[in-house]
Amino acid sequence: MHWSLFIFFNHDNGRTQIIDLFNQDKYLNAIQTSAPHLLRYLATAFIVNKRRRPQFKDFIKVIQQEQNSYKDPITEFLACVYVNYDFDGAQKKMRECEEVILNDPFLGKRVEESNFSTVPLRDEFLENARLFIFETYCRIHQRIDMAVLAEKLNLNYEEAERWIVNLIRSSKLDAKIDSQTGTVIMEPNHPNVYEQLIDHTKALNGRTYKLVSQLLEHSQAQAAR
């Protein structure tokens, strides 16, 4: 599992594949028992993955279980946002995460493809980490002061305003900005049914595969006797 990190973080689809592999029960049990340092890489894959995956909620439960036995700025960032709702703590951890990524031998570099240039993983991580904070903060507050939000996102006021405008333009955010009061007003969020169906189908396929594997192992053990 450790050596596979060389492939997963240098392959264009690796951040999706590591989630599919490491979230299988036997791999996740091995991580929690013998290799908790791998939680850093699984957490990073979830953060930089462009689509939310159905395993994410279960992974947050693992982070919550392990937060007393293993501490890492990246896993602590997720705990701040999704377990403790500590946005000031998440802001501090985001700065630490940047240093961790730059100094990590697997996360600090991405192989350049010959046909196109890749975005550094650090930039992807910080962009999505801000989005995680923003989305969770917006679930709690319907009207948000721009100055407070800029502080939570480690941005100045103008950068935060541009960042939110870009989110709205790219349809990642259903909201509007009230320039007179300097606030962001959230619109009611209706989940995409088709994306939910696709994600749940993938999760069902994964659970079916695990169940079949367990049944085969059991039948082979019975035959051996």
TrEMBL record:
The keyword Ribosomal protein does not apply. Residues 7-191 form the PCI domain. Signal peptide: none annotated. GO terms for molecular function: translation initiation factor activity. Keywords: Cytoplasm, Initiation factor, Protein biosynthesis. The keyword Ribonucleoprotein does not apply. InterPro entries: eIF3e, PCI_dom, WH_DNA-bd_sf. This is Eukaryotic translation initiation factor 3 subunit E. The lineage of its organism: Eukaryota, Viridiplantae, Streptophyta, Embryophyta, Tracheophyta.
